[in-house]
Amino acid sequence: MALVEGCKHSLEISIPVAEVEQETERAVASIQSKVKLPGFRPGKAPAALVKTRFAGDVRQEVLEKLVPRFFQAAASQDHLQVVGRPNFSDVHFHDGEPLRFKAEFEVAPTFDLGEYTGITVSYAEPVVTDADVEARLDGVREKKAEFVNEDPRPIVDGDYAVISLESISGVEENVKQDDLTLKIGDEATLAAFTENLRGASPEETREFDVTYPADYDRETLAGRTVRFKATVTGVRRKELPEANDEFAKDLGDYQTIAEVRDAIRKAIVAERENQAREETKHQIIEKLVDSHPFAVPDSYVDRQIEMGLEAQLRQLAAQGVDPRQLKLDWAKIREAQQERATRDVRASLILDKIADREAVSATNEEVDREVQRIARQQREAVALVRPKLQKDGTLNRIAGQIRTDKTLDMLFDKARKEAPKPGEQKEEKA
């Protein structure tokens, strides 16, 4: 056996002549029973003639039977856990001689588990201010807001202008839309509309040019300068409900606005606690990877990249993009993602080994809860969903993810948490 590099190994294997001749006789007999040769009844052609006439088929069958079997035996004898598909080369196959070949392959990595508890990480308990609560409450009020028609007056910033819009030039197909509502002065409204509609009164018509950015989401308008005729048909303002007990009752199981504020505060605390924990777990993973610098098989890395790419393609498909129309350069994708994928693979192997040592596992109840969640999401019965998840391997992946999550929770609980240094604290958003 020869170690080539990292997880790459090679073996030079020799198969005894007696084994080769015995397998050759089996191959000849197998072909002999099937072929029809002129002058001979089916299955009765002489073995020597079959061996000569079908030498290529005999050779192929012998190689397909012997090479994998003797490779597996040699790998087992050396206690090698082979991963991926081996590459066979330098095949020496001649009558009366041992069959020799070279096998190059990868093996599962072995490494010693270093210290994994008491890892020092940066962590701060989340703080929620009254301003955070009010900002979230304002968001709830925004969703419950009503549009109120103003008495006829010129449009000012903050108003919602209701217009009838029609293109005059600049596009191949006429653009026409009635009852288009635009918030004047808003970042989401193109500046040309704000500048040309500001000060206009109901029933007033204005003509103006709008230049659309090259990356505008509507392809027929992207990069074009279009002249429009716009007639103001109304001016509205958004009226938010008052934050009082009556508003609280309209939201559901609340009697007072104080209860709503308390629920909002608890929700923000939970969100920020979860975010802080996830960021800290990421720190733990990165530190574990840094402290365990072992090689990983290329086949593992390639599979990690493929899974990430498949997830991205599924997202694109969900957005209406046909993945088959994309021209993907696998070499460039692999080069760009190799380092991150390698670290992700190493992290997975380290966490798996920690879980083994700590006897962490997913319980049947935990897996059942996730299956029930998926069933609800798919609006199907659990009895129908579970067999499908079992068949495609998803059930095992669910159990594996639960095991990993529980391992990370354990590492988080046992980590040494220090307050972030100045400049490390991220700005929190409501």
Overview of this structure, please?
The chain has 430 residues and is α+β, with helices and mostly antiparallel strands. It folds into 3 domains: 2-107, Trigger factor ribosome-binding domain (Alpha-Beta Plaits), CATH 3.30.70; 146-239, Chitinase A, domain 3 (Roll), CATH 3.10.50.40; 276-323 and 332-418, Trigger factor, C-terminal domain (Trigger factor, domain 2). It is 47% helix and 19% strand. It has 12 helices and 11 strands. A hairpin with a 6-residue loop joins strand 3 and strand 4. Helix 7 packs across helix 9 (330-358). The longest helix is centred in the middle third of the chain and has 35 residues, at 257-291.
Which percent bin holds the helix content? 40-55%
SS-based structural class? alpha+beta
Q: Provide the CATH top-level class of the largest domain.
A: Mainly Alpha
The dominant shape is: elongated
Reported by name, the CATH topology of the largest domain is: Trigger factor, domain 2
Q: In terms of per-residue confidence, which ranges show pLDDT below 50 for 5 or more consecutive residues?
A: none
What's the gyration radius in Å? 35 Å
Continuous helix count? 12
State which percent range the strand residues make up: 15-25%
Q: Biggest sheet: strands, sense, closure?
A: 5 strands, antiparallel
- First CA to last CA: what distance? 60 Å
- How many domains make up the coordinates? 3
Oligomeric description of these chains: single chain
Order of helices and strands: EEHHHEEEHEEEHEEHHHHHHHE
DSSP strand tally: 11
The CATH homologous superfamily of the largest domain is called Trigger factor, C-terminal domain
Averaged pLDDT: 91
CATH architectural designation of the largest domain: Orthogonal Bundle
